[in-house]
Amino acid sequence: MSQLSFPYNRPPLPPFTAESARLKVQAAEDAWNTRDPERVALAYTPDCEWRNRDRFLHGRGEITAFLREKWSRELDYRLRKELWAFTGNRISVRFAYEWHDNTGQWWRSYGNEQWEFAANGLMSRRYASINDQAITEEARRLLS
Question: Which of 3, 43, 78, 96 has a CA 20 to 30 Å removed from the CA of 108?
């Protein structure tokens, strides 16, 4: 269980400006690159709604379990996110991440996400569309 008490604020808070939206996107990128499911899950409301590819998740428990499983098979994961658009309490990002599977095959995964935030700055909805492309190790762009 987290040592944080709820509810709490997770700045920057909506409504977003260009600067605060960029900060929110960078904070998400930084957190995801830790590959720490518990840390990442704290950015979401306890009842957060997710769509990730063809999977639908509800709540921090399912999100944490999903991320544990994801990073157990997406090895040496490295992510970059870019602000695409924002308004009010919503942010849209595009992203790319690279990883390899347990056979050594490298992948680049591209996609976009639509985020919606609660007033306290926690994400209440995340909808992600993602496509994968097999790459050679030499073709990697997102080096640590």
Answer: 43
Does residue 102 belong to any structural domain of this protein? yes
Within-domain flag for 93: yes
Residue-wise pLDDT for 96-127, tens only, equals 999 999 999 999 999 999 999 999 999 999 99
Q: Report if residue 104 sits inside a domain.
A: yes
The answer to whether position 117 is within a domain reads yes
Torsion angle defined by CA atoms of residues 80, 74, 128 and 20, in that order, rounded to the nearest 10 degrees? -30
d(C-alpha 135, C-alpha 129), whole Å: 19
CA distances (Å), origin 31, targets 26, 80, 134, 135: 9, 11, 25, 25
DSSP 122-138: -EEEEEEEEEEEEE-GG
